[in-house]
UniProtKB/TrEMBL annotation:
Annotated protein name in UniProt: Membrane protein YqgA involved in biofilm formation
Protein species of origin: Sedimentibacter acidaminivorans
Domain of life: Bacteria
Chain ranges passing through the membrane: 17-36
Keywords: Membrane, Transmembrane, Transmembrane helix
Xref: InterPro entries: DUF554
């Protein structure tokens, strides 16, 4: 995601990074649930 943001700022590509933002919240929650099980 950081690379995609950098490419968007430079203007090389237009990757829609906002679509992946929920993964930042969901992934740690899922990892903590899995480690508890």
């Amino acid at each position: 995601m950081i690379v995609a943001l950098g490419l968007n700022i430079i203007g090389v590509t237009k990757i829609k990074v906002a679509n992946y933002l929920p993964a930042i919240i969901i992934a740690p929650i899922l990892c903590s649930i899995v480690t508890l099980i």
